[in-house]
Amino acid sequence: MSSMFGLISRVRTSLNPPEAKPLPDSKPLKFGVLGAAAIAPMAFIAPVKSHPEAVVYAVAARSKERAAAFAKTHGIEKVFGGSNSYQELLDDPEIDAIYNPLPNGLHFEWTMKALAAGKHVLLEKPSANTAEETRKMFELAENKGLVLLEAFHYRFHPLAHRVKAIVESGELGAVKSTSTSLSIPRGIMKADDIRFNYSLGGGALMDMGCYTINAMRYFAGADPTAVLSAEHELVSPQIDRKTVATFSLPGSITSTILCDLSVPPMLKLIPALPIMNAVIQCEKGEIKVMNYIAPTLYHSITVTTTANKKSRVEKAYTFPDLGEPWWTTYRYQLEAFVNKVKGRTPHAWVTKEDSIKNMEAIESVYAKSGLGSRPKSEYVPS
Ligand SMILES: NC(=O)C1=CN([C@@H]2O[C@H](COP(=O)(O)OP(=O)(O)OC[C@H]3O[C@@H](n4cnc5c(N)ncnc54)[C@H](OP(=O)(O)O)[C@@H]3O)[C@@H](O)[C@H]2O)C=CC1
Ligand SMILES: O=C1OC[C@@H](O)[C@H](O)[C@H]1O
Question: The GFO/IDH/MocA-like oxidoreductase domain covers which part of the protein (predicted)?
Fold first, then answer.
């Protein structure tokens, strides 16, 4: 019963977090948001509200009305609307950092432009359409001394750290295989969603698969050396609704990923449940992680030792010295981003190399199946 109260309290507070008061001795980072994207309120605006050193100062949207409505709903001071609005926002000298939740195929162009304008960037996943684009963005960020982070938010939550710590403790011996899944029932994504649009960088592997690949690499502590198999179910000639792929990793590890944007109902009637699980099989046992993506809601880490068949269940909502149970993965991520920009050491990070390797793995799956990488951006940096 108490865990039910805990769940309700966590979820309610995470959706409507307490407003943080600015710190007297620290100038808040002023953020601008590119696009009135559906994900922005949950992944960025709510977390900023509870951060004492961050403020959402501006939003830009291609339609003036949409920009104004978004700003009004979320109490955003400055509004840029119209066809040149993204660039106008980037040119605003008041703005320190950009949140880029544009469609994947526009990540490269607008991150390059944001960096060129001298802004730090929190960039939605997957970082770009190709690893080459990811490399170029990080090189520009490095050259300009700016912070660029691919928003693999789950990596900042204590759950991911606890799972990794159990793997690295050696308690269960070496990793032998991993299985990371992310799928949602049919009906959530509409047919005109950006995820089904090839020119905008769509596909299940790009959208949800980027997490499954990232979690595979993170929990196994290694990068794939080969794609053993890659199978898709397609909704159009180049767009995968579902992808299942297997990889080999150093140390004879075999890994499977599964992602699905639209799982059909069972027996055509019973709606499928979302799956957000990871299983790490080791020499002496296994770790089953339920809900590694949105762990604030609810999660479990079940550790089973093969020899005595004993299991224990762990939870990890906070770090010993950081966080609140209601902090979402996004709130932990923002904490790290602000700390990095302020020159402090973040509690976690996703590096340039990590982001590049992740895009390489995505492209290697599309290459194996023959579907091919998503189109390169036509934007040529000046
Ligand atoms: N971290 C997370 O948990 C999540 C991350 N994401 C990522 O965030 C990004 C956006 O996803 P989501 O919010 O669901 O997408 P939306 O379609 O809701 O938002 C995309 C935004 O991009 C802008 N845009 C600019 N050009 C185009 C174009 N040609 N076609 C369509 N939109 C355009 C639109 O802004 P405007 O208002 O100017 O018209 C729109 O608001 C993706 O990269 C996705 O992978 C998505 C969901 C969850
Ligand atoms: O990043 C994401 O996380 C949650 C998913 O439902 C969504 O498709 C994806 O973009």
Answer: 162-266
Q: Three-state SS for 286?
A: strand
341 lines ligand 2 (CB under 6 A): no
The answer to whether the predicted template modeling score (pTM) of the entire model surpasses 0.95 is: yes
How many percent of the chain have pLDDT more than 90?
97
**Domain residue limits at 82:** 2-149
The pLDDT score that the predictor gives to residue 6 is 85
Q: What is the CATH number of the domain that holds 123?
A: 3.40.50.720
30 included as an active-site residue:
no
Does residue 253 sit within a domain? yes
Would you say the CB of residue 35 lies under 6 angstroms from ligand 1?
A: yes
Q: Report ipTM (2 d.p.).
A: 0.99
Query: How many structural domains compose the chain?
Result: 2
For residue range 20-33, what is the model confidence (pLDDT) as tens digits?
999 999 999 999 99
C-alpha–C-alpha distance, residues 320 and 343, integer Å: 22
Ligand 1 center to residue 104 CA distance, Å? 8
74 close to ligand 1 (CB < 6 Angstrom): no
Q: Which of 119, 125, 288, 357 is catalytic?
A: 125
Q: Is 16 within a domain?
A: yes
- What letter represents residue 325's amino acid? P
